[in-house]
């Protein structure tokens, strides 16, 4: 695995969704209420809308175009079911959030 540093862990908080561009890919760092920090693709699989312009209520990520909704703990589609966000491996190393984009192909 090849991890890339994204940001300082201490700059993130529970209930937040923060967009980043890593190696040319849009990603979201999402910390759902009562959950753990996750890294997902930053575009909706439906029409590639930037999810950073959508909503996040601490549990659900919502696309700004057609209101597709995703569970922030798993990336699975809530509405419609059967779709999902690509999740990237994530680790905290020396206080830094790092993600691994190798081998993934968000659609």
Automatic annotation (TrEMBL):
Pfam family, any one: Rieske
Cofactors that this protein relies on: [2Fe-2S] cluster
Superkingdom, natural source: Bacteria
Gene Ontology MF, one: monooxygenase activity
Domain (Rieske): residue spans on this chain: 4-99
Protein keywords: 2Fe-2S, Iron, Iron-sulfur, Metal-binding, Monooxygenase, Oxidoreductase
Gene3D superfamilies: Rieske [2Fe-2S] iron-sulphur domain (2.102.10.10)
Family assignment from sequence similarity: Belongs to the bacterial ring-hydroxylating dioxygenase ferredoxin component family.
PANTHER family attached to this UniProt entry: FERREDOXIN-RELATED, RIESKE DOMAIN-CONTAINING PROTEIN
Protein name as catalogued: Toluene monooxygenase system ferredoxin subunit
